[in-house]
Amino acid sequence: MAKSLTVLRTVLGTYPHTLPLMRGEVTSPKVALDFVEIKPTNRAFKPMAMEQAFDICEMAVVTYLQARSVNKPLTLLPAVMFGRFQHGCMLYNAERGSIGPLDLAGRKIAVRAYAQTTGVWLRGILANDYGTNFDRTRWVTFEDAHVTECRDPPGVERAASDKALTRMLLEGEVDAAIYGADVPTDPRLKSVIADPEVAAQGWYRKYGFSPINHMVVINEAVVRENPQIVKEVYQLLLASKRAAGHGTVNDIDMLPFGIAAVRPALERIIDYAAQQQVIARRLSVDQLFDDVARTL
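Request: output the structure for the sequence above.
Response:
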């Protein structure tokens, strides 16, 4: 008698590289993914981190670093679901004057959450590559970190409940703002890093990898029951990416798979998160993966 499929409740964003999996074009004889639709996908990060609400879930890499730093029972897969260069994600209102990386010292900057992955990448890039001094910066946020044990450092304040990020920027209540998935196209708003696409290409030539935003985690309870589920899910995700033929931009793989491929970006974001007091303790890349994941 054939063994029944293991059905796993799964939250993934709808991307070209996940559609073959969601449409059933990529399947496994061992695992079936029961997709739970949550939009935007980041609404699933906190319940997964705090309650392990799903079996498999896309997760922002900084959310996972925070979860791992306080020993949440999650297993990371070396599978990138979303990556991008961050250079164009901090904007200022050009009608109120020009702002560049060296003009940010002592300014007031808004961001959805201090631990938002794009914010961690951008602060790290600006501080380490542009010499930006954030010591006196006032950060205005709208949400806490997804991992409640991780507190924001000093210098972070909460916006009033009736405030909105872009309106605060346009009205001059903040000097700059960091955006996640939806970067506005208002012509008054300009990138703090000039010519961000050119800057991003230069950053890639210097470091040789693209920044990672989202990866995939599995509930450790599922892994304990069947450790090989890690390999099966990873192969499904990889097969879906290959079936879509998607992930490369300007000959750069924005969706790397495998520990060797993701290691440089993870090392860098760990450094940035530690510098910014986003994680409770420093982690090594190898500490992020279990024994099965290390073989992938």
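The longest strand covers residues 74-83.
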